[in-house]
Structure formats: C-alpha cells, structure tokens
Design goal:
Helix content: 55-70%
Number of helices: 6
Oligomer: single chain
Order of helices and strands: HHHEHHEEH
CATH superfamily: Winged helix-like DNA-binding domain superfamily/Winged helix DNA-binding domain
Radius of gyration: 16 Å
CATH topology: Arc Repressor Mutant, subunit A
CATH architecture: Orthogonal Bundle
Distance between the termini: 20 Å
Largest sheet: 3 strands, antiparallel
Strand order of the largest sheet: 1-3-2
C-alpha cells in the first residue's frame, strides 16, 4: 500500500491546485507579471496574492514590485529552490501515478 502513501508525502504547498498552476506557468518562463498570472490561471486577485505570498515565504518565488511609468507592476519569478521543488514534485507525482497504474487490476 506504499503506492498510496507516497501521495501523502507530496509537497503540500505545491499540491494546491492554484499554487500548482502558478508554478506550472512560471516553470516555462523567466518571470511573469501579476496580471498575466491572474489571466492565465483564472485565479482572482486576492487568492493569487495569498498564493504568491505563501510561495515566496517558502523561498520558491521572488516577487519584485516597481512602477512602469505611473502604473504599479508586480513581477514574479521562480527561484532555483522553487524550480528544484517543482521538479521534485513532478517526479514524485509521476512515480506515484505509475505505481498506482501498475497496481490496477486488468479490466
């Protein structure tokens, strides 16, 4: 039954659907601004802000706030620690799914 216990060991911070979506977007680029993340993930501003803060506090993201002209701009990038954690999460998740799939009875 260790096939299922491995799921309990996944990084819970990343496993949240909203944070998983954020990291998936950032894994494919150097950085993204808040508005872009809001649009592509479909997460509302308040929830997105909370997710970004949680990921930043874990050291997975670096958030930079500045102005572009007179408009505020928040830029987000995944840190090397975040990239490593996301790679590990994906590896562990794939391994868990492979184990579960192999343990399914033939239909």
């Amino acid at each position: 039954m260790d096939d299922y216990a491995v799921l309990a060991r996944l990084d819970r911070l990343i496993h949240n659907p909203g944070r998983l979506a954020i990291l998936a977007v950032l894994a494919g680029c150097e950085s993204a601004d808040f508005t872009f993340l809001e649009q592509v993930t479909g997460i509302n501003k308040g929830t997105l802000s909370k997710h970004l803060t949680a990921l930043e506090e874990a050291g997975y993201l670096e958030i930079t706030k500045r102005f572009k002209g007179r408009m505020p701009n928040t830029s987000v990038r995944m840190t090397s620690r975040g990239r490593k954690a996301f790679r590990n999460y994906r590896r562990q998740y794939r391994q868990a799914m492979d184990r579960i799939e192999r343990s399914e009875p033939d239909r």
